[in-house]
Structures are given as C-alpha cells and as structure tokens.
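ok so for the tutorial part 2 we go from a plain amino acid sequence to predicted structure tokens. step 1 is just haveing the sequence, like this:
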Amino acid sequence: MAVVATWPAARLGDDFAAAGGLGEGHGEPPAGDHLQLTYRLWLVGYQLGRGDAPWRDPYSFQPLVEPQLSLSGWPFGLPYWPLEAAFGPVVAWNLLVLATTVGAGLLTHAWLRSLALPPLAAAVGGLAFAIAPYRLAQGGWHLLGWISLLLPLALLAIERSRTAATPARAHAWGAVCAVSLLTLPLSGQLHLALGALPFVFVYALVRRAPVPLAWCAGGVAAAVAVGLALRYTVLAGSAEAGGRSLAEVDKFSAEWIDFLDRWHRPASEEFVFLGWLTPVLAVAGLVLLLRRRRALAVLLGVAAAVPILLALGTNLPLYSALWDALPPFRFPRVPERLLPIAVLALAALAAFAVGRRRVAGGVALVFVALDLAVLPLGAAADDPGNRAYAAMRSSDRRYLDLPLLDPGNHFGAAYDYYALQARRERPAGYSTLAPEAAVEFVREFDLDDLRGLDVRAVLLHRGVYEQAGIRGASLAERELLEAGFRPVESDGAVTLFIRP
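step 2 — the prediction. this is what the tokens look like for a chain of 500 residues:
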C-alpha cells in the first residue's frame, strides 16, 4: 500500500516524489521545499565526509555572515548519506519517502498492539496514519511528514518501558522516548514540538509508570531547553526575530471545507483532508473508548480536536487571542503544522472502533485505504549534471544565482538543489530564518556589490524567472553584459556568466 500511496516514489530514479501540483519548471526543477530539504540532508554526509560539523552550512549567505546552523538534516541526513552516495539525490529522496511511510505505519501498528488491540484493528490504525493525506503530502516536500513517525515511536517506547521484563530494558525504552522528543527541536520542527511535547507527556501521565514518565519528563525538559536556545540564538539573529504577523498566518490558514476536500492542491499548506470515513470511525472509537479507558479517550479526543481547530488559523476567532497571549504562537506562520498529532489520534480512535471484530476489521482496512488514498504526491523534475554549474564549479569562484530572491521566497529552493552541483560559497540562499545581513543584501543589491564580495560568477535562471512570475530575465542579461560578465556555458534554462 505504501508503494501505491506514495507513487511515483517507487519509480525511484525518474523524478522526485514531491507534493503534487508544484507547477511547471520551465526547463528547471519546479520549486518546492523538497529541493531545500534535499540540500539540508546532503549537507550532513558532505560535512561529515570533510570532518566538519554536520549541522553547519558553509555555503549559504557567505561571506556575509558566519556559517549558518542547518537543522533539517537531523536525523534523516544519516541514512540519506550512503543512499545519496550510492544512487544519487533523487533515488535517495524517494527511498526515504517510501521508508518513512512504511515506518510510520509499522510504528503505529506496534503502539496499538501494545494497547492490547488485535492485529487487524492495529493494522487499520497503522494504515490510517501511514497514508494520512496531510502526512503524505508534507512528506513529499517538508521534513514534517517524515519526522511525524517519532510520535508513535515515543508512545510505543512508553508502553514497552511499562511492560519491560528488566529495569535495564525499561530504561532503554524510556531513553528512546526521550531522544524522540529531543529530536523534534533538534530537527527544527519547533512548531510540531509545541503540541507533541505536552501530548506525549500527558500520555505518559495517563499510563502511570514511573520509569517512562521520568524519561519522558527529561526528554521534554531537554527539548524545551533546546527550543529556548534556538529562540534566543538562531531566531533572535534572524529577520523573523519579532515573530510572524497575523497577516502571514492568514495566508496559510485552512478553512472548514478543506478538511473534507480531497481534491485540494496537495502542494498547498491548506491541503488538510482527513478523509470521509476515517473521522466517522474515529468518533465511534471515541464513544467506545470512553466506556473503558476514559482518560486515554479524553487525551486522544483532545489530541485530535485541538490541532484541527488550530489549523484554521485566523479563521478561528480564538487564534488571534492565542497569538496575542502566548509568545510561541507568534513565530509559526503555518498553523496546520500540528496536524500529525491529530491524524495519529484519529488513526488510533479508528482502530478502537474496529476492536476485536475480525470481519469489521477486514472491511475497515479496505475502506480506510480507499478513503485516504488520494495520491497526493507527484513527479517533480530533476536536473542532474547541469553543464553551467559544472563549468562554474571548475572555476573555484563564489557565485550568485539570479533572479535574486528574498531568502524566505520558496522559489529559491531551486538554488539550494543546484548547490549540490556547485559546492561553492554564495552570498544568497533560501531560509525562512535568514540572518538580517542576508535580507539587507537582497534589498540593497547592486551588481557593483559583487566585486567587494569577490563574486565573479553569476548563474541566470530563466526557469526561476518564469516560475516566480518575475519579468526581467532579458534585462538582467543585458546588465550583466554591461557590467563585464560574459556567457560561458548554458544548459537548459541556466546560463553561466563570468567576469574575469
């Protein structure tokens, strides 16, 4: 089922399996966060191979600032490293899309089995979480879809710690829970951590076992400490130090109808389809669970409802009050990022609805698969071995990509992808947490600035001009020629200009 749900990931080497509907690339890879994440994952192995810190980006925004902290490479950059070395970035990406989908399902199944649910019921829950449309779509362009498998892993670790035969095993599983929670902020998923940390901690309280509760508390404390450290270092030094505006949140807020809209464009943050049958099963499961395990039922019900409500963002009147009252809410601009918690809770409640009914379990397995199988991923073009970048790389120069975009503009993700082929310092880059100096460079840019930065190579991306709807590629080429740059190599929509 994972092969079908994540298609075209199973094609491996043809194209990136990314969120569907990214649009036309106009001769270049269509811009999407999968390109930026590919760069972050690649950096881990590349830096380790050079003996450098894997959490540092030595190329973006150079030489304007110190090497930037790169968070998104943990933990999947480690398996990505050998896969990319053996098969290239596209196959490595697609294999991880498949692997994280299978892993999400198996971990959820194992967690539900530890709650004494029979195999078929647990399979329904595992399938519902693995192929949850929002989780899958995010997995096609954002680390959120992959990192969400840590939620069932943390819950499974609590259960295994509770029932461990020896103290050593109990502590080992407790440590797994703590590391899972700590990984959320270490991977840069601070928004998800805002909901996941209290959810898992309350779950540990409900399950009433001292060893996993202690480890969970330690993991929460460590994760909070890391989050605060990032807040007062990386965030404080970026252009977003003051947080996001409600206008930005409004741009990404879902509407009620979006939760039932299976035809919404998957490449949009408002793609929050929950299914038609699965929520009904979850409500039935909640009613049944309230009769037997009231505390667990209340927790799962709240875990399902709260992220769904918050995903409405400014379409929920309460959200603006939360934004005013709670400082952490002022930084995320995409209110849907807590939804992996909701889809896991819905999956678990659907499993409890099936219970020990074997026939119902088999029927539910089929219908949940049909209900959630919206195939949100599509094929996104690759551009390996671009000759313009190969010629630039051989020149050993700093370079600049044009059009020069605001660091938070997602069309700049294409430049991150091409950086795998360049491996040179560049004063621009793509990051929603870009340092203020990088933002000022873009706002005040003039071609004459490149001399002082020792930038003598410029790559003109006509495809990015088209994707971003920016006019002026011909004007930019004329200005480059007037400034002494000369075209050296062209491949597809990319042309390299060098000034001696």
